[in-house]
């Protein structure tokens, strides 16, 4: 269980008090009329109730100990209703109670709830009376009907003769007639209560005295309804309740009472060919009826031929105890009874049973999970009553479902049925030799469907079957198969793609060890404690670590290896192929030579396959395995060399392939080249130089970045291992790169840079490096329009110069100091400020991140080799530039910036410049728990705000968060910012001033920067509205207003204008600036854009309501008006009366009138 | 529904046991159940319908159904047979006159198909009264040894003093919980 899962697990029912309060409220709801307010109260009560109980969906048993008390209290209003004379309007608390009870039953299950309901004899009449008052057409009170029907189902078991029951002499119908009528109405009503009605119906009709009266006619009715459903004469919804009642009757009824009806029901099922239906629910119920009707024809028996597990030992030990402990006495009899075989021999199985079984077997193949599941249970139950020979036939038939010609549904149904049979011990020992291999096959069943596959339910069900075997069979019986079973389970546990199958296998393995004893499963305990539910949860860990752990025991390496080479290295999922190849290479270390040779042989053969996945998987596996073999010092035979050449040549000749095929071929062969080179396998050098180099030359310029990277690694390995210092090869390679240096394809240019950045050190001279660096710098400083959106190329450039720089020693760097300084300058001032956008969005982000990583690497490298190029000024600049991004609104950016920032901070050692920061930021140890992507981390950074040398940069970054999108970031960052500002202000007024001054600087400097403009205005707006700036000198605010107005006047972007409107309204709180702001707002009232005009009118309206002091000067009265309307009222009226969408020529006079009311000069 | 879900459900189900308490009227069924549940036993009247108790015992949840034993009610006992894990048959050890009636009722009951898998615990109740027959004697009277394919235990007890009630129930639960197959 992970911590997350754990957190969701509740310990107990903690809301009892809350629930009690709700019950009290419900009981005290007095009225009978529903007005709006009671309706709302009732709704909210029920909503709260639902919310509380829904928390226990997963662990409903926690509410058990409270159910009795809850139910008995909630029944008070029900009894009260029964006494009430008012038939027309039932009390609200009555229905609310029923709603409450209904929801408890929904969460806990009605079977569980029923036994908590009251059940005295007098209740029967009550429930019938109440039920008869509930109309099935009332859409609101169906829960009441549900609860009443459920209640009636319990009362229908009362041990009294219904016929003698009637208390009423008032000429009404007898109770039993009334009850049955009500039940029937509800059965066909079609809504949820039909389920409760079906239970009640079956309880009622299976009573000894009632069954004689009604059962036959009811069953005829059911058969009729079946016909009608199949004819579509009634809807499934209306008929299903009736079918359910039939299913329940056969569940509750006494066999002698119901079995006479079974033949005609089974006949109906055969007639209607139920499995031709596509309605899953219908088929499921029919399968159930089929099964139960079949069971009613078969005698129950303790099928003693069946293999029974040792219970006797438990009893024996008890017996010996009790003999000393009179007067208690224990006796038991589990001996095979002598007449068991008589039973088998003489028992005539009714002929209908054959059909019953055939329907169930077909049900196992049905294309719906629920139907297969139901059929599997049916197979188990029916078979348990069959004589030995027939049972054996059933098992064989089920096994036939696990055949290649059947689809995954049949395999699944088959496994489920075998599990159900095994659970009951119905598979005889002599059938195990057929059954167990079939399930083993199912445990690795997988049918590829291109880029997904089916079969996980089959594998899961196979684990269920093994689990069942472990529980039902004794070790002696299973012993011949135990090794195969445990191998199969462990294969699934470590190598299944699906986590749920791995978990299922791990559980089944645990059961196997636990039940059969660790003496029968060698190392079982060790394995099960390591390969546990949690450990198998992570795919990589399961494939690579757990497999290695398992492999060391019982020669498990062999089945694991065999499974990988035949089932997994050709898997449809590339990730699984890669993991399998890697796992295979590790497992090889356990294997004897012979097996390794077999693996190699198989892999070589598979490399020639036409299947893409197989080819790819086998090539990378081959690479891995040969690598392992060389580590183990196993000589490689010629066939391997030949095989490698063959597949290399084949791929070289198919380099023309584009798309996924071309990519898979290329990535596989590059990987092979790298791995094989590392082992220095004695391949023909001419072959390498021609074939492999040609392949690499192609791949290095591929559009796919990961293939280019594979080619780079391949080349480096090849050069280092086969041709170190070979100047001819160097020449060929460099020429290939430089020849393409002016390509106008981005990926080619990337390939060159990536290759240059990774060249082996011995390969290039200092002069060459200098030349490369110069060229890169040059190309970066004269970027064409096309190139400006080539972010991959920019990133590749940065990565290239970075990796060249950090290979150099101190004196080399010193010798090109000028160049290095220029590079650093570029990184800090150009790359880190690259905000290029394209149709792909913010493509500059990748460049900025690359720049941050680059500067970190450079700084740390210089520090390490004590190179003193970085001046204090530069360090300060680095810190400031990265800080901007540490508070970005973009999660990925914050992550990259945050992590690298701290690497620098704690990597540069003690530096006086950094002391201030270290004092206020988390320590190295505390960092472990910080997730930089997490949006709640802003407070960490805002601690820097008071440090003057950084506050400018911090503001510059954070306005993007506080004034931008998404809202979650705005909210969290703004909240953190305001908290920090308040705290600074309360401690140190002067410092606060400085901080705000930096903001003002940032505002002034960047308002014209397109991507920051709105964010700055929004942030300023939020700051002003928060009140934190109330004491700010008005002159400063005034200058900000000027600056903003300057921008807003000229911009064509309505959003900016609207933001300015809002800002002006916010600034009305500064008394001395009111005139200025109002003037600007009035201009907006007549601006070109209607949308802005209406917006300005709205905003101004609200502002005038809030800032009444605007009207203080003129005593509140207009001069040229005689009426009583104040200026404020007039202004507000003008704003609302006017349609600001109208033509500007109409609006200008109105605006001017407003101005005069506001006391503004015209 | 995969194996992990099946296991989860099974775990819950295996902790729930349904017990049926039957026997002739006045045998002391209600008294025993109430005593076991620590309820007051001084004011018990004959059961005319049935009672259901939910008890927690040894990590198990016991759903105990106590049904009235009067002759007219016995025909309806079968309304309650469904899913019964264990049967508790209570005998009034002093009521020698009705012992053969008791034996007949028990054997009739045990022939019921739906109770075939249930373990049987017989309480020879009212051992505190003088003249009570011993558990051994009642075992013979009821001819329990003739039972085939049935796990049973008989134990003398007293619903009044509570003697041996725990021992009896513990055996029953142990027997049920080690069972592997459900029928
Ligand atoms: N002395 C004595 N009296 C008991 C004992 N157990 C029960 N009784 C008495 O026997 C009488 C019947 O007990 P109930 O518990 O009502 O019997 P019951 O089996 O539930 O009877 P019905 O509900 O009618 O089937 C009561 O008066 C009890 O006090 C016991 O162990 N010793
Ligand atoms: Mg009683």
UniProtKB/TrEMBL annotation, chain A:
It comes from Tetranychus urticae. Residues 282-525 form the Tubulin-folding cofactor D ARM repeats domain. It comes from the Eukaryota. Residues 892-1044 form the Tubulin-folding cofactor D C-terminal domain. PANTHER family: BETA-TUBULIN COFACTOR D (PTHR12658), TUBULIN-SPECIFIC CHAPERONE D (PTHR12658:SF0). Belongs to the TBCD family. One of its GO terms (biological process) is bicellular tight junction assembly. Gene3D superfamilies: Leucine-rich Repeat Variant. This is Tubulin-specific chaperone D. Residues 318-331 have a biased composition (Polar residues).
From TrEMBL, chain B:
SMART domains: ARF (SM00177), SAR (SM00178). GO terms for molecular function: GTP binding; GTPase activity; metal ion binding. Mg(2+) binds at residues 30, 47. This is ADP-ribosylation factor-like protein 2. One of its GO terms (biological process) is establishment of localization in cell. It comes from the Eukaryota. PANTHER family: ADP-RIBOSYLATION FACTOR-LIKE PROTEIN 2-RELATED. The lineage of its organism: Eukaryota, Metazoa, Ecdysozoa, Arthropoda, Chelicerata. GTP binds at residues 23-30, 69, 125-128. The keyword Lipoprotein applies. It comes from Tetranychus urticae. Gene3D superfamilies: P-loop containing nucleotide triphosphate hydrolases. Keywords: GTP-binding, Lipoprotein, Magnesium, Metal-binding, Myristate, Nucleotide-binding. It holds the Pfam family Arf. Belongs to the small GTPase superfamily. Arf family.
């Amino acid at each position: 269980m992970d911590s997350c899962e754990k957190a969701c697990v509740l310990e107990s029912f903690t809301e009892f008090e809350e629930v009690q309060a709700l019950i009290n409220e419900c009981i005290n709801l007095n009225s009978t009329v529903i007005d709006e307010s009671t309706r709302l109260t009732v709704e909210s009560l029920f909503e709260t109730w639902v919310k509380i109980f829904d928390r226990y969906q997963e662990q409903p048993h926690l509410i058990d100990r409270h159910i009795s008390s809850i139910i008995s209290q909630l029944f008070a209003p029900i009894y009260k209703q029964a006494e009430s004379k008012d038939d027309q309007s039932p009390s609200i608390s009555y229905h609310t109670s029923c709603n409450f009870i209904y929801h408890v039953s929904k969460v806990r299950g009605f079977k569980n709830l029923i036994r908590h309901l009251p059940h005295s004899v007098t209740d029967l009449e009550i429930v019938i009376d109440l039920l008869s008052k509930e109309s099935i057409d009332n859409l609101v009170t169906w829960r009441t009907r549900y609860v009443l029907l459920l209640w009636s189902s319990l009362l229908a078991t009362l041990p009294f003769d219904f016929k003698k029951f009637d208390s009423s002499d008032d000429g009404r119908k007898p109770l039993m007639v009334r009850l049955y009528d009500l039940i029937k109405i509800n059965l066909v009503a079609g809504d949820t209560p039909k389920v409760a009605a079906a239970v009640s119906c079956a309880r009622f009709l299976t009573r000894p005295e009632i069954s004689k009266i009604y059962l036959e006619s009811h069953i005829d009715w059911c058969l009729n309804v079946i016909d009608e459903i199949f004819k579509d004469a009634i809807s499934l919804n209306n008929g299903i309740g009736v079918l359910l009642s039939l299913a329940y009757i056969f569940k509750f009824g006494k066999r002698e009472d119901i079995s006479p009806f079974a033949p005609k029901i089974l006949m109906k099922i055969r007639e209607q060919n139920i499995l031709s239906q596509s309605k899953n629910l219908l088929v499921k119920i029919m399968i159930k009826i089929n099964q139960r009707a079949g069971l009613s024809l078969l005698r129950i028996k303790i099928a003693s031929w069946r293999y029974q597990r040792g219970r006797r030992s438990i009893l024996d030990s008890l017996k010996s105890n009790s003999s000393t402990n009179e007067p208690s006495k224990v006796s038991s009899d589990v001996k095979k009874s002598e007449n068991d075989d008589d039973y088998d021999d003489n028992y005539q199985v009714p002929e209908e049973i054959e059909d019953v079984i055939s329907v169930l077997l077909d049900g196992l193949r049905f294309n719906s999970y629920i139907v297969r599941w139901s059929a599997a249970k049916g197979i188990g139950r029916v078979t348990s009553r069959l004589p030995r020979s027939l049972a054996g036939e059933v098992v064989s038939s089920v096994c036939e479902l696990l055949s290649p010609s059947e689809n995954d549904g049949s395999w699944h149904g088959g496994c489920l049925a075998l599990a159900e049979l095994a659970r009951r011990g119905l598979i005889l020992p002599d059938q195990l030799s057929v059954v167990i291999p079939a399930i083993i096959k199912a445990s690795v069943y997988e049918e590829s469907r291109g880029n997904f596959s089916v079969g996980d339910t089959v594998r899961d069900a196979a684990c269920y079957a093994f689990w069942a075997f472990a529980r039902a069979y004794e070790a002696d019986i299973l012993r011949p198969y135990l090794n195969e079973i445990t191998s199969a389970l462990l294969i699934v546990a470590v190598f299944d793609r699906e986590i749920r199958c791995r978990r299922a296998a791990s559980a089944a393995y645990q059961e196997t060890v636990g039940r059969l004893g660790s003496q029968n499963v060698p190392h079982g305990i060790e394995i099960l404690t390591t390969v546990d539910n949690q450990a198998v949860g992570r795919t990589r860990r399961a494939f690579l670590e757990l497999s290695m752990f398992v492999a060391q025991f019982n020669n498990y390496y062999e089945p694991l290896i065999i499974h990988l080479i035949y089932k997994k290295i050709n898997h449809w999922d590339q990730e699984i192929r890669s993991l399998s190849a890697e796992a295979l290479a590790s497992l090889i270390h356990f294997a004897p030579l012979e097996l390794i040779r077999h693996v190699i042989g198989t892999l070589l053969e598979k490399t020639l396959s036409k299947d893409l996945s197989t080819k790819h998987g086998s090539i990378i596996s081959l690479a891995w395995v040969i690598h392992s073999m060389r580590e183990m010092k196993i000589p490689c035979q010629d066939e391997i060399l030949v095989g490698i050449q063959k597949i290399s040549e084949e791929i070289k000749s198919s380099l023309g392939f584009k798309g996924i095929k071309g990519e898979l071929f290329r990535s596989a062969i590059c990987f092979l080249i790298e791995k094989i080179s590392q082992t220095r396998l004695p391949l023909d050098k001419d072959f390498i130089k021609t074939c492999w180099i040609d392949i690499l030359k192609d791949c290095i310029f591929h559009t796919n970045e990961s293939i280019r990277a594979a080619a780079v690694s391949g080349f480096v390995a090849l050069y280092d291992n086969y041709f170190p210092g070979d100047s001819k090869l160097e020449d060929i390679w460099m020429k290939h790169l430089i020849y393409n240096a002016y390509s106008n394809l981005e990926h080619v240019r990337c390939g060159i840079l990536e290759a240059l950045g990774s060249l082996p050190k011995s390969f290039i001279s200092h002069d060459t490096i200098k030349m490369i660096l110069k060229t890169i710098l040059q190309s970066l400083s004269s970027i064409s329009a096309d190139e400006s959106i080539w972010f991959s190329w920019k990133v590749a450039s940065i990565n290239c110069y970075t990796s060249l720089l950090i290979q150099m020693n101190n004196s080399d760097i010193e010798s090109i100091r000028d160049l290095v300084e220029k590079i650093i300058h570029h990184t800090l001032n150009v790359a880190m400020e690259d905000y290029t956008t394209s149709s792909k969005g913010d493509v500059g982000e990748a460049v900025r991140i690359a720049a941050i990583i680059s500067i970190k690497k450079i700084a740390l490298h210089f520090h390490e080799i004590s190179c003193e190029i970085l001046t204090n000024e530069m360090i300060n600049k680095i810190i400031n530039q990265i800080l901007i991004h540490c508070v970005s609104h973009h999660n990925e950016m914050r992550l990259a910036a945050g992590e690298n920032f701290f690497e620098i901070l704690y990597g540069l050692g003690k530096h006086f410049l950094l002391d201030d920061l270290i004092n206020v930021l988390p320590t190295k140890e505390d960092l472990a728990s910080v997730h930089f992507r997490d949006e709640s981390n802003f407070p960490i950074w805002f601690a820097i705000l008071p440090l003057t040398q950084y506050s400018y940069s911090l503001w510059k970054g954070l306005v993007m968060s506080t004034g931008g999108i998404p809202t979650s970031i705005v909210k969290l960052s703004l909240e953190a910012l305001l908290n920090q500002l308040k705290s600074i202000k309360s401690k140190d007024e002067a410092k606060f001033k400085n901080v705000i001054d930096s903001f003002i600087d940032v505002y002034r400097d960047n308002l014209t920067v397109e991507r920051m403009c709105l964010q700055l205005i929004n942030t300023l707006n939020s700051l002003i509205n928060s009140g934190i700036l109330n004491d700010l000198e008005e002159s400063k605010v005034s200058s900000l207003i000027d600056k903003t107005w300057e921008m807003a006047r000229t911009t064509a972007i309505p959003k900016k204008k609207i933001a300015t409107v809002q800002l002006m309204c916010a600034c009305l709180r500064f008394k001395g600036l009111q005139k200025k702001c109002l003037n600007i707002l009035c201009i907006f009232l007549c601006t070109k854009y209607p949308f802005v005009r209406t917006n300005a009118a709205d905003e101004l309206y609200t502002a005038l309501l809030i800032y009444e002091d605007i009207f203080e000067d003129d005593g509140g009265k207009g001069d040229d008006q005689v009426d009583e309307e104040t200026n404020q009222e007039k202004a507000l009226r003008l704003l609302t009366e006017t349609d600001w969408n109208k033509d500007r020529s109409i609006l200008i006079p109105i605006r001017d009138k407003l101005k005069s009311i506001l006391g503004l000069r015209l | 529904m995969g194996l992990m879900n099946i296991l989860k459900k099974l775990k819950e189900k295996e902790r729930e046991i349904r017990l049926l308490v039957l026997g002739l009227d006045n045998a002391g069924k209600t008294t025993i159940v109430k005593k076991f549940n620590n309820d007051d036993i001084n004011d018990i009247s004959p059961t005319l319908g049935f009672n259901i108790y939910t008890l927690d015992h040894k990590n198990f949840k016991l759903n105990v159904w106590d049904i009235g034993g009067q002759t007219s009610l016995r025909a309806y006992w079968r309304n309650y047979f469904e899913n019964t894990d264990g049967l508790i048959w209570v005998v009034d050890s002093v009521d020698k006159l009705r012992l053969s009636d008791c034996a007949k009722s028990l054997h009739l009951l045990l022939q019921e198909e739906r109770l075939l898998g249930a373990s049987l615990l017989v309480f020879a109740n009212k051992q505190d009264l003088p003249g009570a027959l011993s558990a051994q004697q009642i075992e013979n009277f009821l001819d329990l040894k003739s039972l085939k394919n049935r796990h049973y235990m008989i134990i003398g007890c007293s619903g009044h003093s509570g003697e041996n009630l725990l021992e009896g129930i513990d055996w029953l639960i142990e027997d049920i919980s080690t069972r592997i197959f459900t029928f």
